[in-house]
Design brief:
The complex is a heterodimer of chains A (255) and B (386).
Chain A lengths: L6 E10 L2 E11 L4 E6 L5 H8 L7 E6 L2 E2 L5 H8 L2 E4 L11 H12 L4 H14 L15 H12 L6 E5 L7 H18 L2 E6 L2 H7 L2 E6 L4 E6 L1 H7 L3 H8 L9
Chain B lengths: L14 E7 L3 E10 L8 H6 L9 E12 L1 H16 L3 E3 L5 H17 L10 H34 L7 H11 L4 H24 L7 H39 L2 H7 L4 H40 L3 H11 L2 H27 L5 H33 L2
Parallel strand pairs in B: 2-3, 3-4
Antiparallel strand pairs in B: 1-2
Helix pairs in contact in B: 2-3, 4-9, 5-9, 6-7, 6-9, 7-9, 7-10, 7-11, 7-12, 9-11, 11-12
Amino acid sequence: MKREDPIALRDITLAYDSLLVLKDVNFQVKRGDIFVIMGGSGSGKSSLMKAMTGLLPPVRGQVFYEGVDFWEAGPATRDAILHKVGVLYQRGALWSSMTLAENIALPLEEFTGLGAEEIRDLVNFKLSLVGLSGFEDAYPAEISGGMIKRAALARAMALDPGILFFDEPSAGLDPVSARLLDELILELKQNLHTTIIVISHDLESIFTIADTAILLDSEERTVIASGKPEDLLRNSEDSRVQKFLTRVQTVFPET
Amino acid sequence: MKAKGYETDGAEPGFVLLDRLGSDRLLARMTGVWKIGVRLPRPENVLKQAEPFPSAGHLSFETSGITSWDTSLVTFLSSFLDRCAMLGIQADTAGLPPGVQRLLQLAGAFRSGHEGEKVHEKVTFLERTGGKALGFFQALFAFLLFVGGAVVALGRLLSFHARFRFSDFMAVLQESGPNALPIIFLISALVGIILAFVGAVQLRMFNAEIYIADVVGISMAREMGPMMTAIVMMGRTGASFAAQLGAMETNEEIDALRTLGIDPMEFLVLPRMIALIIMIPLLTLYSDVIGILSGALTGIGMFGIPASQYYEETKVFLTLNQFGIGLAKSVFFGSIIAASGCFYGMRCGRSASAVGDATTRSVVSGIVFIIVADGTFAVITSVLGI
């Protein structure tokens, strides 16, 4: 682990009560990379994201942000780290009692000393980045699922975080909206040099965006492969990796 | 024989005839309609035809007589084959229709794949009782943590460190105050009338109707005003707190706040608790006044007590002390309502039914705690002689 790595995990073990979810997960993410956490349902992808975003304390192991142990740090340090992190939740998780503009403005109002006018300009800019200008005063219930995700991305980017987490960005979206989101992710990487961590099982998206990927396995409860998806597909001899990346695995047994 | 309510187009319902071919070979001849709704044979009864069983027999199928089938055939065969396997009979499914063979294979694959997860351990009575007791103490501990968290958040608010949105606070204030006036009016007016009636029927026997004024005044101010307001507000506002916060939890909105470093305790719980604790005494006072007035109207209008006498009687016996006790209680009730609503909302699970559960639990435990608190107050005030 290098000190300058924006995020690194060492021996992370996660459990809900006595139910073990993941054990001994190790990886580090390079600055400006798109890092994809792959795995089938129930392999612990979302729990891993919770451990990295301060929602689920690990039973063992450390999460380092630029060398700082997140779970050992005091509340003030943790808050400071979290302000440099943006999260796009699976279903957007926009605050339903606020308009889109208010949703994006809230982090800015709370954590910057900006005036109302500057905040409004920033909000409008972020909304136009995700193609939602003109929807400032809409409530989350009034717009479509794809728009909710894009608005949530605008909120996740509100404070211009150095690290962005995406929890299954293409889940629940039609193929066109899903590809649009992939393109947005690539644009963010190229133009804002944001480090991006994506949880996904959408192969098309994984091959399009990933610089590095890890595969979690629900039986082993840990990382069973890591590398660039194309390399994994070409070189890995692990049948589980091949099955995941080629999707030949069917739930029905062959006759 | 036809099953009621199902048309087999005149064809015979499903039937199995077990033939013995030699000493250890069985042939199952299957005929008729095998569809849901048709009365079909039971696997265990079919096997009885072949008793006594050959020790290590073979079974094959002959199914050309089946006119139509659906999954009821597959279900029958699945259970039938299980029984055969238990008896040590080897079944050859080649004689079954190809679709049936495939479906049996799929069902078998899923069953074997998931059996490991469904291990039902037998839980003894003592374990269940212990589990419930531990669950109760865990919930109590979680509630104490919640109350502690709320107090810490209040401390941060008082030292101007809390993230507290004034606009949210005002919205909750409006919702839990003025918007509740009509229902409080209705309930309090009815309670005042009922008190006057019940009191009057008894007091009339002693020719003492004038004391209706005392009955109505004191019971409204001390007991019924605070209690009815609290129960209405628990069902109205406490339940809505639980449902709002529960839906936010379900929708990951609370996670989104936490990862921004915003404490939901300060941001969501505190405005609700403070607004309700401010509003409840005011609503209680309103309820007292409405109840006393409606009781007075009943006494004066229906039992012929002169208005001036009623007024004098009320003025003498209904001291400010009585109101004070009622209002002090209402502050406690308000805290219970807000804490119970917010606590269960924040602990809500991640499903649609979880929101309903959270709401129900908050209302039930809120009302129980309100009544327990009222009882405690009754003991304290009687010991203190006030």
